[in-house]
């Protein structure tokens, strides 16, 4: 991998090979009239020999940042409907474009993602990456950092607090706000439908629910369940919770996709979200609005803008950017 | 615009300036040992002077196709949930990648799309485009063709039958198949909820409904309505149809997003999709599966593969590729 990356000629390589300063190489590309003809010819020959791309590299040099950003999209088959990463891709495209950068999409399964990074870098297709779906034992950040590849992340780099080039939403605070909204609306017991343990995002949101319901007289074990991030499976997982709940209780959900599954299960029993059982989602990526589900909003445009700004910085920030999200009240918490 | 494009040096430009054949330029880049040293130096100097990018251009030359493909995504705000273009973007990314090409996303409103094309081409960010959302009075295909920019389209180029580099689904045949499925299942009257007239895709699907119900004893005017491509607005538009329908009737929909709106309106009245009123969607981009809605499936992976293959061809095909889609039966047409 190292060998492949070394093939990518830099301005420094051209300067060394031509026995001139980097400024002279830059002038040869951008202000050739400032360079003596003989020197100019030598630099240009080295540029051609090394396959150094003048236009693009000069732009990166001037702007001190990557110009093409790699972004992994999920495979078409089996991707969840209402995925927050769909509007996030749009927001990130717009933020990058406003800054004269471009997003390049790619697909890769977990086993191949590092090989795909390597190929995209070796072929000079991208200069850096925006990561999403960060998790424990995630090899991506360490791999990129080791190779000094610029990257930022929507989501914390959970296993390495020294990596700070990320933007994330405070899942605990968001869920606490969601539960407090349910309690303010007068719902009595507050159940939780989350993802299976081990997902740092899911665990953090679940902690918010546990903390915000600790003083309630309720059986936390009976009132919590897990489901994958899929509306149909969430719907099936809701049944056990509904058996334990009564009208006037509520269900906090780890995501809008899960909340959608909850409302599907409720409608099968003739229960109305809000009037009978309160339902609170998390994300607000579009699906919550369609189904009139109250939720905790991730501000995707702000996150995308912050990530692109961060990618522009020549150095990493001293700490990541945590956004405390706000509740968007809708019919599913209206009694 | 012409001026800007002319700045992009081609292999032919290098050959002319170096007073050698194109093959010699190609050899200078890929097999330099086959070229006399003096000639090699002259060609390399011209490559550098003209800013010709050897790696990429050589690959395009060898492969006879564009290497980076522009793809317009919708803005984050107001984009419909369940948009078929979300899974299509994934499928297209995978198809392009399998072929060593890359997708570059961009956003643009209708007024700016040609300027955005121009900028992406002038800055050599993309070599061609995949169009979607084609419609009447759509200026994009003519603009691209005039400039000899490679492009293909998911959707016919409605106003210019001489442009044949597209793949599309036969909307009329698909809707006919959907209505026949409803009739086979024993639904009596078949209503239609479509988009407002003037959309070629919507008009074609509506024609399928009109043709396949022409022999039915039903009031077509009473049993058809229109809605924008939005589940909530579709839900509102469904009410008038439901007033006119009886249990045992059905509603054919121009899209799954519209069908979702229909099922939302039905559940408000306590009507069950399938058992009470049949519902048929169109697209199968994910949302129909979640809501167990029978639909007409657009095979996105096949379409993406065909488009990438088409973009590889040095010449346009003699005619566009029309795919006749199949019905996917689910609960919403089960009595």
Q: What are the SSEs and their pairings?
A:
The structure is a homodimer of 335-residue chains.
Chain A: H1 2-6, H2 11-18, H3 22-30, H4 37-50, H5 54-63, E1 68-72, H6 85-98, E2 102-106, H7 113-122, E3 128-131, H8 140-146, E4 151-154, E5 166-169, H9 171-184, E6 190-194, H10 200-213, E7 224-226, H11 231-244, E8 250-253, H12 256-268, E9 278-280, H13 287-290, E10 295-297, H14 300-312, E11 321-323, E12 326-328
Parallel strand pairs in A: 1-2, 1-3, 3-4, 4-5, 5-11, 6-7, 6-8, 8-9
Antiparallel strand pairs in A: 10-12
Question: What's a concise summary of this model?
Answer:
The first copy, chain A, has 335 residues and is an alpha/beta fold. In chain A, 44% of the residues lie in helices and 14% in strands.
Overall description:
Two copies of one chain form a homodimer. With 335 residues, chain A is α/β, with parallel strands linked by helices. Chain A is 44% helix and 14% strand. Chain A is built from 14 helices and twelve strands. Chain A has helices at 2-6, 11-18, 22-30, 37-50, 54-63, 85-98, 113-122, 140-146, 171-184, 200-213, 231-244, 256-268, 287-290, 300-312, and strands at residues 68-72, 102-106, 128-131, 151-154, 166-169, 190-194, 224-226, 250-253, 278-280, 295-297, 321-323, 326-328. A six-stranded parallel beta sheet of chain A has the order 2-1-3-4-5-11, with helices on both faces. The first copy, chain A, has a four-stranded parallel beta sheet with strand order 7-6-8-9, with helices on both faces. In chain A, strand 1, helix 6 (85-98) and strand 2 (102-106) form a beta-alpha-beta unit. In chain A, helix 2 crosses helix 4. The longest helix of chain A has 14 residues, at 37-50. Chain A is elongated and about 85 Å long. Mean pLDDT of chain A is 89; it is low at 1-6 and 55-66. The interface between A and B is large, with 52 and 53 residues.
């Amino acid at each position: 991998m190292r060998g492949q990356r070394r093939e990518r000629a830099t301005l420094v390589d051209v300067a060394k090979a031509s026995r001139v300063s980097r400024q002279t190489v830059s002038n040869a590309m951008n202000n050739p009239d400032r360079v003596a003809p003989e020197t100019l010819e030598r630099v240009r020959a080295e540029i051609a020999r090394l396959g150094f791309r003048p236009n693009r590299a000069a732009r990166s040099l001037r702007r001190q940042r990557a110009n093409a950003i790699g972004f992994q999209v999920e495979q078409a088959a089996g991707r969840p409907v209402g995925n927050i990463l769909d509007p996030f891709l749009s927001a990130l495209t717009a933020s990058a474009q406003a800054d004269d950068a471009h997003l390049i999409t790619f697909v890769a399964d977990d086993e191949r993602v590092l090989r795909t990074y390597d190929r995209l870098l070796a072929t000079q297709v991208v200069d850096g990456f925006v990561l999403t779906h960060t998790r424990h034992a995630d090899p991506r950040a360490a791999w990129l950092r080791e190779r000094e590849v610029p990257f930022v992340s929507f989501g914390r780099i959970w296993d390495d607090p020294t990596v700070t080039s990320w933007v994330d939403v405070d899942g605990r605070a968001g869920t606490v706000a969601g539960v407090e909204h349910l309690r303010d609306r007068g719902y009595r017991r507050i159940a939780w439908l989350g993802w299976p343990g081990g997902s740092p995002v899911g665990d953090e949101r679940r902690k918010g629910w546990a903390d915000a319901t600790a003083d309630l007289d309720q059986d936390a074990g009976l009132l919590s369940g897990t489901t994958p991030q899929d509306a149909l499976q969430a719907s099936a997982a809701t049944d056990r919770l509904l058996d334990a709940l009564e009208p006037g209780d509520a269900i906090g959900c780890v995501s809008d996709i899960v909340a959608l599954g909850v409302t599907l299960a409720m409608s099968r029993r003739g229960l109305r979200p809000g009037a009978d059982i309160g339902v609170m989602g998390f994300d607000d990526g579009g699906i919550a609005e369609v189904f009139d589900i109250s939720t905790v909003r991730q501000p995707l445009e702000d996150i995308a803008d912050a990530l692109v700004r961060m990618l522009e910085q020549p150095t990493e920030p001293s700490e990541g950017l945590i956004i405390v999200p706000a509740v968007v009240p809708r019919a599913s918490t209206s009694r």
